[in-house]
Design brief:
The protein has one domain (about 1-65). It has three helices and three strands. The chain has helices at about 5-20, 45-50, 55-60; strands spanning about 1-5, 40-45, 65.
Length: about 70
């Protein structure tokens, strides 16, 4: 199970930073951006192997469930 910033959002922000650096902006002048989108990912295969029962309500709330 993982709860953290969205990978696609993080990649998009990295692209923006890289573009600004390549355009000549100094890295010390770039703002720090905090994540605003988070996602919950549950790997059901691993939970089964570990003998962990994930409640159906938690599975329903997950952004992504890996089989």
């Amino acid at each position: 199970m993982s709860y953290g910033s969205s990978a696609s959002e993080r990649d998009r922000l990295v692209g923006i930073y890289v573009a600004r650096i390549l355009k000549g902006e100094k890295t010390t002048e770039l703002p720090v951006i905090q994540a605003s989108k988070f996602e919950l990912v549950i790997n059901q295969q691993t939970t089964r192997l570990l003998g962990i029962v994930v409640p159906p309500t938690l599975l329903a709330l997950a952004d992504e469930v890996l089989e």
